[in-house]
């Protein structure tokens, strides 16, 4: 991030002033060779609670598993309407910002100009909120939604006797892709917009610290630097930890499955724990090398490999079918957006409760992580430009990826339903971590491309852990972005350990539980953010030169 995005360089508008100095409540010092610079309360509570959670889950895995199952059941079965209404509200909020005069406000003040050109900015937006999910769900979701979960009650192409009904294929393909786009499109990115816009407006326009608590200054005033603010930041830490742990756990499952597919390595929790430990060790090396020498280089390598991987699937498979599937899915998504978003009057529980609610919780739990990153690279944009670009540009990239991978897999499935590995892994014997490799099995260079898929998953694993530890360290260091590296290494280790204990305590259901448990209270925090954003933008309009 360029130095011009330093909050100190932004004019402090008269409606929100404070004497608070970033880091004034921090404890600095050394323990032997290890330096530290931590917020005395936020770090202590977050670290202690994380360690206690890890220990208790390891000591009582069965009880922890039962608890996780209860949390998932309550969240998806009882609060499904709540999560859907919250995320729908975020969409409406974003659209209101675009059409109302608030859209003309510039992040950083009237004279601010963007720190990055459009190409660089779009690339960073794409990389911000996307990772392991592209690989894990790119094949799984379109196939599963088209044949099993059946959004909006579409008929399955496979009848009760298992026979394929060719007449149902076009609608199933379109709705399977549209149902996938719902989970990866503007709804999720609207969650990120709220968080990133709050951080941007209060940092760049109001001159407050680059911290989530700053967004609550209009409500709490200087009390935000006390225990109210500590509680907000601690909740953000746990939301980020469990959101990352879910991604890391899914990545370990897919890497393990890929190694089994290519090399015959046993699929087991033990193998996945070993993978998490090894990748966490690599993340620690990346953290130690710093942003330029670590995560930046890995991200560049991963982006090149991901592009090559995408174009291989596009051109080695049925290219026209893949591109046609992307377009059909997109037009169906636009047409069915409102019915797919409706919180009531639906009977597609297998799709809405088992999938959509988990996704909305997952996006909310990732909001502090991705929102901070987006805010750091978006100074100088107008609110209207910011909202439209963050909603639409990454969504379109994801639709293209998911459309090509999903349409290719669906074409394989319906062309050879009796021999398709995609059908075996997604429909007959549900093994979601193997779905990608089932699709690659029908393409040339299966072994090579499956190995590349494993490498991509592992590098996404490392970069997510490294970037996540940076965000958590910023929060627990009182808003400082240059705290000692050992603190980031500590949080990278904690992320890996939480992913491990969640896998031990119940696998995928435990990962889902960790996300939903933190997303419930943090969603309330984000709803309040919408109010404070409007308060801040009203102040900007009052002080805007005529």
Describe this structure in words.
With 546 residues, the protein is mainly alpha-helical. It has a single domain, classed as Amino acid/polyamine transporter I (Up-down Bundle). It is built from 19 helices and two strands. It starts with 25 loop residues before the first strand and ends with a helix.
Strand order of the largest sheet: 1-2
Using DSSP, what is the number of strands? Answer: 2
In CATH terms, what is the fold-level topology?
Answer: Amino acid/polyamine transporter I
Kindly state the mean pLDDT as a whole number? Answer: 87
Total domain count: 1
> Which CATH first-tier class would you pick?
Mainly Alpha
Please state the CA-atom Rg, rounded to the nearest Å: 23 Å
Give the SSE map.
Layout (H helix, E strand, L loop, with lengths): L25 E6 L2 E6 L2 H18 L1 H17 L2 H20 L18 H11 L3 H6 L2 H10 L19 H16 L1 H20 L11 H4 L6 H37 L5 H48 L2 H23 L7 H28 L6 H33 L5 H8 L6 H6 L5 H31 L8 H20 L3 H36 L3
Helix pairs in contact: 1-2, 1-10, 1-18, 2-19, 3-8, 3-13, 3-14, 3-19, 4-14, 6-7, 6-14, 6-15, 7-12, 7-13, 7-14, 8-13, 8-14, 8-19, 10-11, 10-13, 10-17, 10-18, 10-19, 11-17, 11-18, 12-14, 13-17, 13-19, 17-18
